[in-house]
Design a protein that fits this description.
453 residues; 60% helix; 3 domains; BirA Bifunctional Protein, domain 2; 17 helices; alpha+beta
């Protein structure tokens, strides 16, 4: 399960309708405001079990949209976990019925919603008092599309990171407003949003409601949705991710030192430990002499593409390259696991889209080797009048020169890959640059809870 659950919902506005048993249950369910001591261990009632079973059967998508609560209920079907799941199903039902007036009221006044001095839980970027009835009327009369988001954390993460109160979440969202608006294709001056914090037992969360004053604006594609998920996850967990990058920097430095040593060996014409890659690079350089398209991997003939792929696969067998790439994959998995549930496909270096430039670097090295070969052949033609034994000496020297140049091209290629991995680390490190003010707030929150620094 991801550490941050980020659930979007697109609402195509319809005629407001009565929210049947969902609103009734949310409004009247027993013990909504407090945790009963016995509920954490007492088995769920038959009424709870039947209600959950009926709703899950009627709406199969609930197992995914209520993933956290459903998983907790399956592992431990107590009254408390059942109540959390029922409450989450009720939220989904409100959105599905399409009555925005009831939905706004639910966000602002539901049990465990953290209410301000104004008597409800709604907040936005302004410090002015929010008129709940006016907001409900505006969204009900809005003719455009409305997006709602649920951002949910595990209780232990929320407490540890300081996201167990409305103020912390509000400051986070306020800092992301321009980013959210841009992702949705809405000018900031047209962007309208409201949030509410619900201090739910196992999964404290916020609801965000976003739309444009212009009903024709507002669209969120999959790519921008993933960027928003990543951005929120990086912000919430940035302190922990920063330490992950520090560890990866150590790997990067070791990799850099390794290639420096290998390059010095090449300059001394020492033996290369990957003769197959060198031979493949030489073969590719010869084939490119007659190729029509030879400067971009995507336009190569099939047999030459296969050669390039084989060279990349050989390079990735190098122990240091393999270790660096595994570290990079681990970093990627650590980041993605904060907001994605699916396991990431494990690709080889040759098949990894984020390292596709490697193939063009192989191609460039082979082309340079081909040019060196042509230059040597021209020099060789000038010497064809010499004696046979002199010619043999020339062929021997040429052979050694080929070996040296092929080795240098191979090692330079490996160094290019090292630099690409280094640049990728640096790029990701910049993305999670620690905000000192927010960091200080987190530390103060930890101290207030008596946690060790």
């Amino acid at each position: 399960m991801p550490r941050l659950v980020f659930t979007p919902r697109y609402l195509k506005m319809r005629k407001p309708s009565q929210v049947k048993n969902y609103v009734k249950y949310v409004a009247t369910r027993p013990n909504a405001e407090k945790f009963e001591a016995d509920q954490s261990q007492t088995e769920a009632t038959e009424h709870q079990k039947k209600w959950i079973e009926k709703e899950l059967k009627a709406h199969k998508e609930l197992k995914e949209s209520c993933e956290q609560e459903y998983e907790d209920y399956l592992k431990n079907p107590t009254k408390e976990n059942a109540a959390d799941l029922i409450n989450k199903i009720a939220e989904e039902g409100l959105a599905r019925e399409g009555s925005m007036e009831n939905y706004v009221g639910y966000l602002a006044k539901r049990p465990r919603a953290e209410r301000g001095k104004q008597g409800h839980a709604l907040w936005n970027g302004s410090d002015k008092e929010i008129n709940l009835n006016q907001v409900a009327r505006e969204v009900t009369e809005h003719n455009g599309n409305i997006w709602t988001f649920v951002l949910s954390l595990k209780r232990e993460d929320a407490v540890r990171l300081g996201y167990d109160n409305a103020n912390m979440w509000r400051e986070l969202v306020r800092g992301k407003v321009s980013e959210i608006a841009k992702a949705m294709g809405i000018p900031v001056e047209h962007f309208v949003w409201y949030g509410a914090f619900h201090n739910e037992g196992h999964h404290p969360h916020i609801h965000l409601m976003c739309y444009s004053k212009n009903p024709r604006e507002g669209y969120l594609g999959r790519q921008n949705l993933m960027k928003l998920r990543s951005s929120f996850a990086n912000e919430i967990f940035h302190d922990e991710l920063y330490h992950i990058y520090e560890q990866k920097d150590e790997v990067r430095d070791e990799l850099k030192d390794y290639f420096d040593r290998k390059l010095k060996q090449a300059m001394a014409m020492e033996y290369t430990d990957n003769p197959k890659a060198k031979a493949l690079l030489w073969e590719l350089s010869q084939k490119l002499k007659t190729a029509k398209h030879k400067k971009v991997y995507g336009r190569l003939e099939k047999e030459n593409k296969i050669l390039v792929d084989e060279i990349v696969k050989e390079i990735s067998k190098d122990k240091k390259i393999s270790q660096a790439y595994e570290s990079w994959l681990g970093l990627k998995d650590d980041i993605l696991s904060t907001y994605q549930n699916q396991e990431r496909a494990r690709r080889t270096l040759a098949d990894e889209p984020e390292f596709r430039n490697i193939k063009n670097m192989v191609l460039k090295s082979a082309l340079e080797l081909s040019e060196i070969d042509e230059a040597i052949k021209k020099d060789s033609e000038k010497e064809n009048h010499e004696k046979v034994n002199a010619q043999e000496n020339w062929e021997e020297r040429t052979k050694k020169y080929y070996q040296m140049q092929a080795q240098k091209q191979f090692l330079l290629l490996m160094k290019h890959i090292s630099h690409m991995i280094k640049e990728d680390y640096d790029r990701k490190k910049q993305q999670i640059h620690v905000d000192k003010k927010l960091m200080r707030k987190i530390m103060e929150k930890k101290e207030a809870h008596g946690q060790k620094m």
